[in-house]
Amino acid sequence: MATMQRNTVLVVLSFFAIYFIWGSTFLWNKIAVTELPAFMLAGIRFFTAGCLIFIISKLLGFSLKITKQQFKNTFIAGFLFLTFGNGVVVWALNYVDSGFAALEISAQPLVVLLMMRILQGKKIQPMSVIGVILGVSGIFLLVSQKTIITQEGALLGMALIFLCMLSWSYGSLFVGKAILPKNFFVNTGYQMISSGISLLVISTLLGEVWSSPSVWSLRVQWSMVLLIIFGSIVTFTAFNYLLRFVSPEKVATSSYVNPIIAMILGWYFLNEQITLQSIVASTVLLTGVYFINTKKRLTVFSRFSGKKIPK
Predict the structure, then answer these.
(1) H-helix or E-strand containing 110?
(2) pLDDT digits (tens, 9 = 90+) for 225-245
(3) What is the average pLDDT across 205-209?
(4) H/E element holding 241?
(5) How many helices (H) and strands (E) does the chain have?
(6) Pair 102, 262: CB distance under 8 Å
(7) How far does CA 162 lie from the centroid of its chain?
(8) Whole-number Cα distances in Å, 27 to 97, 215, 260, 274
(9) What is the C-alpha to C-alpha distance for residues 277 and 148, in angstroms, rounded to an integer?
């Protein structure tokens, strides 16, 4: 049976999407959640994006037919990533700054590595360990600032985001092994449709008050459009693609870069504070990205030198 080949250009573009475009979604969500209920917001975003993906797929001639097992797995993945993993993050943005939320999530590579060790028995490479240590050190420098952790509801927001991070980390491992639709675009569509419906059901059960887009402010309307097109269709398709061709801990390095983007955008558009300590911490985080990605160069070198690097 033929296997889909890895495309280097697509890998690079996909990393750009999950690094930089995804980092912008914290700003867009923060803007939208100031006016809209969190689960309604997330539900409309993913349901609309899923419908658009299906329409585009049909226009491109992609088959939407999948097996029961594939549908079950897309539902599980959608729940881990979107229903819980994203919906609760959006709700937590009521209590924490967008930059802070992204910064806390940047601990995800550590969680992914530990899960791979516990659940898959994979050894943690020295370079990855150094990268994670630097990343966690940067996070500590950021969250130890009193001006951040003393905000009302901040501790609740932090706890909720941590649970979402666990959900995303496990989802990354699940998707890497699960039987899913072969077409990454169709796979993304099913995850978003199922999650969008789930989030709207949750919104209804919680008694959230829905409103028409016609009464939203212009900046909320634009935030929703950006979330649907770029934050959902483009980046989540890229994310699913990378999970099939790149190791989960490499994909998780996006959570090191996202905070930098989120922090800069939050400062510029929402007047969120950036201190000298935040700048130093951000530098440490990016250095952690370098060390984790260095493992890739060592692996490539081993293929040419004939030396084996333990997995």
Answers:
(1) helix 108-120
(2) 999 999 999 998 888 888 888
(3) 96
(4) helix 235-245
(5) 16, 0
(6) yes
(7) 13
(8) 9, 21, 12, 15
(9) 12
pLDDT at 306 over 70: no
Rg (CA), the chain: 19
The model's confidence at residue 308, banded by pLDDT at 50, 70 and 90, is very low
User: Rounded mean pLDDT of 243-248?
Assistant: 82
Nearest CA among 9, 163, 11 for reference residue 86: 163
The DSSP secondary-structure symbol of 216 reads S
Q: How far is the C-alpha of 93 from the C-alpha of 161, rounded, in Å? A: 9
Instruction: Look up residue 17 and give its DSSP letter.
Output: I
Mean pLDDT score, 156-167 = 89
| Alpha carbon separation from 295 to 119, 126, 197 (Å, rounded) | 21, 9, 40
Is the pLDDT higher at 154 or at 2? 154
Residue where the block lists tokens 């009302």: 152
pLDDT for 303 equals 33
Per-residue pLDDT at 181 exceeds 80: yes
For every residue of 168-213, which 3-state class applies, written as one string?
Answer: HHHHHHHHHHCCCCCCHHHHHHHHHHHHHHHHHHHHHHCCCCCCCH
What letters, b where the CB count within 10 A reaches 16 and e where it falls short, cover 175-187?
Answer: bbebebbebbbbb
- Secondary structure (3-state) at 9: helix
What does the pLDDT look like over 98-151, one tens digit per residue?
A: 887 887 887 777 778 778 888 888 877 788 878 878 877 887 887 777 777 777
